Amino acid sequence: MEVKKAIELAKQNDQAAFNYLLDRYWNDIYGFQIKRTENENDAEDITIQTFSKAFDKIDNYNDKYVFKTWLITISKNIHIDLVRKHKSSINSRINESNDDIVYGIPDESPTPEDKIIREQNLAKLLKDIKKLKPHYQEVINLRYFQELSYKDISKELEEPINNVKVKLLRAKKLLAQIITKPNA
User: Fold this and answer.
1) What does the H/E/C string look like for the chain?
2) Average pLDDT score, the chain
3) Residues 84 and 156 in one domain
């Protein structure tokens, strides 16, 4: 399959085309991010977010541009957003009455109310996860609750690593739909 054909099919929601594009460009995007982040987990997470966002917005892709360049631009923007979030979470200020620099680090330890809310949110999340098909539940469990790498999940499920990546993408997308669906 050629890239242009795969993009056309992906715009029609063809799963084989999504798999082809993921397989074809995964190493390019992952390699780009590993150089930027110097962290395998961050690079993997950003790469998954990149493909997820690209596949969601595939209808907006303009074929005047090279598809790989479009993916790298999405990936770069996701990384920039994450860096900005990280920087904004660090509060510092200078105490001018003293010549020393004082860093005001807020106490971010959870309050009792935060703990109750977190437990309630976790219980709801677990209920929502149970609404997924069993194979999606399994991949979510292995990645986020058992914190296995994609390679370990691949071994556990006896599936190629790219299948695990796509399955996790789909599971996250379906879970997001369940979570955001208004309660009937």
Assistant:
1) CCHHHHHHHHHCCCHHHHHHHHHHHHHHHHHHHHHHHCCHHHHHHHHHHHHHHHHHCHHHCCCCCCHHHHHHHHHHHHHHHHHHHHHHCCCCCCCCCCCCCCCCCCCCCCCHHHHHHHHHHHHHHHHHHCCCCHHHHHHHHHHHHCCCCHHHHHHHHCCCHHHHHHHHHHHHHHHHHHHHCCCC
2) 84
3) no
